[in-house]
Amino acid sequence: MTIARIRALNLAWWLLPAVFASSFVTAVAVGAVYLSPSQVFVALSGQGEGGLARDIVQAIRLPRAILAAGVGAVLAICGAMLQGLFRNPLADPSLIGVTAGASFGACLAILLGAEVAGAFGSLPMVSIAAFCGGLTAVALVYKVAKGINGTSVATMLLMGIAVTAFSASLVGLMEYFADNEMLRRISLWRMGGLDAASYPRAFLILAVLCGLLVTMPRFGSSLNVLLLGESQARHLGVDVERVKTTLIVFVAAGVGASVAVAGSIAFVGLVVPHMVRLWVGPDHRQLLPLSALAGAILLLLSDTLARTIIAPVEIPVGLITALIGVPFFISLLRKNKRSL
Amino acid sequence: MALLYAEGVSVSVDNRPLLTEVHFEVDVGELVCVIGPNGAGKSTLLRALCGEAAMENGWVHFKGESLPSLPARNRARQLAVLPQNNPLSFAFTGLELVALSRTPHATGTERDRAICLEAMAALDVSHLSERLYPTLSGGEQQRLQLARVMAQIWRAEDGGDRLLLLDEPATSLDIAHQYGMMRAVRDFARSGVAVVMTVHDLAHASGYSDRILALKQGRSMAYGSAESVLTTENMQQLYGYSVTVIPHPVTGKSLVVADV
Fold this sequence. Notes:
Chain A is an all-alpha fold. Chain A is built from 14 helices and four strands. By secondary structure, chain B is an alpha/beta fold.
């Protein structure tokens, strides 16, 4: 490792957790009612005499902050895993059809008016339909791409594009036949939002995140070796088929769950891992956890902005992530132009 | 029995035979060069030897066992393969790339680092350890990849007798580094490794190999010492081009020159 890279890693491991902690506190403190950090800590610890501050924090802002951090972290990890798996720094969860499939499921549920009808663990039908849609899309992509010689990455990408186009057409058809009210709900859902935050949603995404975090160390070095190509990875003792299958299932579950609880939030899965890679290098053992932190930070800050910038109106967070992230990304690209 | 023993190896793709009945063996400490015109089946042979290409007929035994039957990690400690093309668009540094080779081992970071540095010194890429791989020239990238596969099976303690398969390792190296590389690979072979490599430059085969296998249209045309294989008659038949074999003025080894 170069000295510059060791320095970048040390800084990242010091800076990102600190920024994460402060953005989490900010997300809880800032809103229609401003709370001082000490009020936040009192409310979070559950001590003191309760009152308004405690209600705001515990009932509204805490689940929302957990949801934002969880979704951001899950999307960033999934993006980093996919980019490693496809050996392409431009891969993104939407490439293998997860996002499109989930959108299709959600639109279908909205069109059928299912949101009113049922609730399953207080997750509305739209979310469940999104999750199922995402998993179905990946299952389809994976089934076609899996041949006798293992899984072909190129076929998988092509199938992902095909599934995405197909779902987009179906969604377009549904939009064509939807009335104004449904149309607005569909388009709002597609912009992504965390306004329906609740503890069950927050815990669902936390559970998925914990699953990813626990298994992550096992995949770090396998993903590094996979960057050399599948046959080299095999010669270096990696069970390539098992790693690929597991990763695809993880990504489908992660993206499916995050789409289910927060709609489709673009940009985080694509650009966060890329930014972290430009900063600390491509070693997945560092890249995966640092991307999780950076993704959580980006979504926490975006959501805080989305809630407050023109309060009391809330902007869909999916619009803000790109507005904050892109300028930062461009500056990193410019700075690293020579080393890319 | 030899370390690597291949008998009657035949490989076909879409009913088109790529290799037919190739017999072949390599022992520890030996360097075997595979020569032949484009499309003769040299790369296919390497892929069949390491179990990557499915064989229609024949068998390959490594230490008396078939390679696919070995557990993956165990196999990776004894066999390293360098294909012709090694695309990598991620910005690993030179040392990080070479260090990927130690993934199947559990020798510890310190020792792994020392092994990688030794392998890099052998291929004259020590000065590239801090450079980013995508910014390097083709020849530098090739030497780093070679250092990587050699570091994978560097020590006898980790894998006993080992096997190294190289597909045109001399590609894009300058003349000094071509011969430096050949010398490094031969020294590596002498340390307890069987090496099979495909080459296009017959001077490499003549100068450094213990045996040469000449492939023509998927069949073994000649197999033996450099002097016995590199004859004017053999080479004209193999390549379908008018050549003459003369002794090298300094080393006396066979030198194949075109009759222009």
